[in-house]
Amino acid sequence: MAEAAAALGQFDFAGDDHVVPFQVEGLDVRGRAVQLGPMLDAILERHHYPAPVARLLAEVVVLTVLLGTSLKFDGKFTVQTKGDGPVDLLVADFSTPENVRAYARFDQALLNKAIESGETEPEQLLGKGVLAFTIDQGKFSQPYQGIVALDGTTLEEIAGVYFRQSEQIPTRVRLAAAELFDRDDAGKPRHRWRAGGLVAQFLPEAPERMRQPDLHGGDGDTGSRPHGEDDAWVEARSLVETIDADELTDPLVGTERLLFRLFHERGVRVYEPRAVFDRCSCSRDKIKGVLKGFSAEEIEASQENGEIAVTCEFCSTTYRFEPAELQPAE
Predict the structure, then answer these.
(1) Looking at residue 184, what is its pLDDT?
(2) What is the pTM (predicted TM-score) of this model?
(3) Residues facing 30 on adjacent strands
(4) Which of 17, 113, 205, 247 lies 20 to 30 angstroms, CA to CA, from 277?
(5) Angle at 168 between CA 163 and CA 173, to 5 degrees
(6) Residue 218: what pLDDT?
């Protein structure tokens, strides 16, 4: 069934934790935008991440949500970084139609050193390594994985390079995360995380219009215009690049309002929003199934105080098992 479109003002704003698809017919651009609030806050606060780590993971969650909600089939979309910096692993996955989970791994000593020396930019915390995008359609198909280098540039610039290498579609990605300090309804101080992002893609009816410049400089390159680039995409990309990071995270600037600010002169249309939720896919049965594959020696080595405890890295839920539960049925 086709999605219903509406001009701004014809229905209520989507609000936090809802991805808003949009189309700018005058520029042959389609995309998605989102602001994450309570869902993201729950993911980050569960692990009590230091602020620089939380901000990085928030950007990865936004990127995962923006791209994962574009899947046209049942499956899972995963974004993962592996680097040699203080934050050596970030991973977030989106399971259709609406579930998100994420976690980060970092070296506390190296992170403290980086903070003391003021080296807390995302590219400094991640170091050199790779950013992987994985699409898994289930057990009857092979996962697809695209990999780009962590090369000292921002996550949004690296994501742009991925699109240019894998899909050959002119794409601009914007990501931002922020801490909010305010007071709750009782007047008590409150700390919250918010993040937002937007992905815009040039999709004209005539494929020959989708000419791309070479990869040098990435989509974030603001230098001279590449030879042969379409006027409509030049305009669209320039508009997207005017977005201030605060606009992407400001609770008073809703997603639809931001899109209107950017594209109203070109006839932006927004579509029915898609809600996303902080939901982990772990379960007692799944973990029990894994443990049942252990040898007797491995079961013995995994015990502590007469039981086996397994904690999910994503949601921090701990599952406890008696060794007898894991013995094969006679």
Answers:
(1) 80
(2) 0.87
(3) 23, 201
(4) 247
(5) 30
(6) 44
Prior bond of 189 cis (ω within 30°): no
Residue with tokens 């609770």, as numbered in its chain: 251
Question: Mean pLDDT over all residues of the chain?
Answer: 87
Q: How confident is the model at residue 190 (pLDDT cuts 50, 70, 90)?
A: confident
Please state the rounded mean pLDDT for residues 284-300.
Answer: 89
Spatial contact of 96 and 150, defined as CB atoms under 8 Å apart: no
Query: How far apart, in whole angstroms, are the C-alpha atoms of residue 92 and residue 63?
Result: 9
